[in-house]
Amino acid sequence: MSVAKLEAADGAFATRLAGADVVFRVSGALWLPGERMLVVADLHLEKGSAYAARGQLLPPYDTRETLNRLEREIATLAPRSVVLLGDTLHDHGASARIAPDERARLAALAEKLRLIWVAGNHDPDGAGDLGGETAQVIKVAGLSLRHEPSPGPADGEVSGHLHPCARISGPAGSIRRRCFASDGSRLILPAFGAYAGGLNLRDPAFTGLFRAPPTGYLLARRVAAVAYEKMRPDHRSPAG
Amino acid sequence: MAKPLRIATSETDPTRQLPPLFQDWFVKRGWALRAHQLGMIDKAKAGADVLLVAPTGGGKTLSGFLPSLIDLAERGPREGRQSLHTLYISPLKALAVDVERNLLTPVREMDLPIVVESRTGDTGQARRQRQKVAPPDILLTTPEQLALFCAWEGARDYFQDLECVIIDEIHAIHGSKRGDLLSLGLARLRTFAPGVRCVGLSATVDDPTRVRRWLSDRGDDIVLGQAGAPAQVEVLLSENRVPWAGHTAQHAMAEVYETIKTARTTLVFVNTRWQAEFAFQELWRLNEDNLPIALHHGSLSAEQRRKVEAAMSRQELRAVVCTSTLDLGIDWGAVDLVIQLAAPKGASRLVQRIGRANHRLDEASRAVLVPASRFEMLECQAAVEAVAENALDGDPPRTGARDVLAQHIMGCACSEPFDLVELYEEVRRAAPYAGLSWEAFEQVVDFVSTGGYALRSYDRFRRIIRGRDGRWRVLNEETARRHRMNVGVIVTAQTLNIRLPGRHGSGRKIGQAEEWYFEQLTPGDSFLFAGEIWRFEGVRGTDAIVTRSTEKEPRVPSWGGSKFALSTFLAKRVRRMMSDETSWSRLPHDVCEWLYAQKAHSSLPGEDDLLVETFSRGKRHYMVCYPFEGRLAHATLAMLVTRRLDRAGVGPIGYLANDYALCVWSLRPMDSLDFDALFQQDMLGDDLEAWLDESFMVKRAFKECALISGLIERRMPGHEKNGRQVTFSADLIYDTLRRHDPDHLLLSCAREDAARGLLDLARLGELLARISGRIRVERLRHVSPFAVPLLMEIGKERAPGTSAADMMLEDAALIGEAMS
């Protein structure tokens, strides 16, 4: 299939999840080629300004950067619909702080394609006045898309919320990267937002969610599959 | 402090110039006032700022304090308002405490009405509070505490009657970010107390006038101490052959042990803590006489270090293996020998270390250098000759870091409202910032206030605000409190506590080490720490859990070279020595043989040119060059050259850089390259820019700048105890900032720091200029004698799983090829 070829060139990783064709993008987005649907989780827009309001003046470019990434994926893949899988906004005040320019870019997206906001714990109201539809759960291609993973193994579930990342080490030191986490039956997406931190896949928060130790699909120059045994725990509390 | 001399009673005895009380005390102790001590008293009488330059053991600290003691004794018991008379600042916490102890002796023996106290990060909350309300006459503290003082409300009142500020070990601090912060603090003190006298105490430095200018812009007074007897420094010539490569000096350890036996107390200096561990273990393996030999380095727990220091001052130890943690500070009169294991990397560092032996001016210090490899043999010989000529290496010139300035400005705003122009004038009185432009200053203030972003969306979130009176003040008390929690510029690598398992979780702490070290360990691995072999059990939170191991050899070796790069000055001497055959007679036979073989098979690097060798070995092609400009500059050069080789189509696979040379290996031959073009200076243009942008070194520098400038807070209220808490990932910020605000202040700070500290760009620039048009290429049929050490290092880095026997066979084959 031509799409698969295109994605291989992009360094993406194509596989199957609970019977559906899925593609893990280097950007951290999930592409469902059959549905022409793009899924991104945990954008945490306006995280920078949330910190700034409390006196820590992080650079105010995170929303701009995250939207750039999203628009790049949309330009490459031409999806029919885009799912924002929850925690798209960092906090309640985010939609009030978001710059007019960036608000307009979101509205333009909602005009151009079907933009669906899945409600998250940081943004229970979903789209609010930013354009697009709001949903709690989306069922598509035999998959079930929601923000928070439901407890215990859940076949065909795609979620976000936990910001998985993995650390691997070699003689030259170690690297820590965001990753897709999947055991072939359920999938947890990496955070897509520029300022979203990561939680090590070996953290207890992931315990009990998978039937088998999950593989990590690390976002590097290409998406690299790494077995659970190869991953190392963090030595400090996760940043962000 | 002062050392006994013959009691002098003649009319010309300077001791007579002291007030009677002090005269009696000197006589009772059997001391005579030294010329430089008198000099310091005279300068104080004249109200002059002054720098005292004297070798260790010259009674330097007492010289600094004498005028204050005399002044306070004459003033008599305090009445009415209590105020601070003298502030003493030392870069070492331990030194502040030690000086307190030493100062109390004259105070007690002369029954002086003087209150002396110390204040460091370890001082309890109650005592700090009391010091704030009732200041002592003399307060002994650290640069970080001064920065904290400056961020207090009421700092101006506290210091307004300050008479004197003394900066000790000024040579060790003035050329660093800590020095920048201290210099800004000094400028602040001079604003609070315009009459304050600044006194600097320094060991011998190459350029005293520069250090003097750093101290203050008032006058240029310098007092020189009496030079000590010349040091006796020798290079240890081992019975065993000098190794081709390596850092441990294992071959000479038995001789080191024998040398220790000839002295009363020995300090054994090494360059890294892992070398310290190794040497300590080796010495104890040989220690048939059960000599009390101890270990001291920065990773050991403070309690353990204190124990060693205490045993040392009770003169119970015969030797201490130590790192730069003992370069400075506490006087141990009993040390009569210093051994430097592996090359010292700089003449000044060597002098400083030699000075640790024998704090008496009338006896020569004795020191022995133990080179760990052949190149180090050349370096040690050059260092010994430099010390004999009293030639020291200088520090590169430095301008004050703007991330440090940002922290200082925020501190000022937390203390009291400031006027922008007044603060600008004050800041420029700090020597590192003398050349700061108004625009640059305003940019830093804007950064402190709004983050200084091109996108002006944070004007509503200012941290400091301009009031109607035109003065700038901190937004609120909460912001000030958070700033005070994050004062200081010491950004340490993430470390883990090394602990035994306890009944409930983690047990006793043995020490700490950098996180990266544990990343290469797998549970079950054994390693060397605090002189014992431990089994690594795993990491729990911020603890690395270990148990005692029964293994005889640690399974994970911890080799690794020096953390210091070879100084420019010493490098030049090494090159000169190599090109001057007549000087070889001072070298051991096997090293001479090696030099002659290099001359016969290839050629020797000249004093001012660059020797490049190409040869093939196995399926690989090698290029080795010998600039002798230090590890950092070489690594940068290797990185840039590799990019060019890649474009030239030779398929470079890897590179290696050490203090003396660098080596690149590739898939295709390199002998027909245009080497003049390859090493052309323009590589510092676009190639450098392109590489810098993706370099992890700039990222690392950025993180430090972000922490120092306050962009990222290390500590948040509620996390006081956990100094490791970093609230946000610096890498995420770096990537975003680079893309959207490439001219931001902190990016430029990070690039500057990386260029200066991590990449040594200035030195690389000088190197490329020096060798331009002077590149000598030797196209060889096989590996040269000089290239052997590098190829051995490559072997060790590449194949950690290879058995020791395989490695020795490989090394032997290499040497055979090179020397045949």
TrEMBL record, chain A:
Could you tell me which residue ranges the Calcineurin-like phosphoesterase domain spans? 36-135
UniProt keyword Transcription, yes or no = no
- Tell me which UniProt keywords the record has, alphabetically: Ligase
UniProt key word Ligase: yes
Gene3D superfamilies given for it? Answer: 3.60.21.10
Which InterPro entries does this one have? Answer: Calcineurin-like_PHP, Metallo-depent_PP-like, PdeM-like, Pesterase_MJ0037-like
GO molecular function ontology, one term from the record: hydrolase activity
According to UniProt, the name of this protein is DNA ligase-associated metallophosphoesterase
TrEMBL record, chain B:
Q: Which residues form the Helicase ATP-binding domain?
A: 41-223
Report whether Transport shows up as a keyword of the record.
no
Alphabetically sorted, this entry's keywords are: ATP-binding, DNA damage, DNA repair, DNA-binding, Helicase, Hydrolase, Isomerase, Nucleotide-binding
Q: Output the SMART domains linked to this UniProt entry.
A: DEXDc, HELICc
Q: Which SUPFAM superfamilies match?
A: P-loop containing nucleoside triphosphate hydrolases
User: Which Gene Ontology molecular function entries are recorded, alphabetically?
Assistant: ATP binding; ATP hydrolysis activity; DNA binding; helicase activity
Entry's Gene Ontology BP terms: DNA repair
Q: Does the keyword Repeat apply?
A: no
Recorded family membership: Belongs to the Lhr helicase family. Lhr-Core subfamily.
| Annotated protein name in UniProt | ATP-dependent Lhr-like helicase
Q: Which organism is it from?
A: Brevundimonas bullata
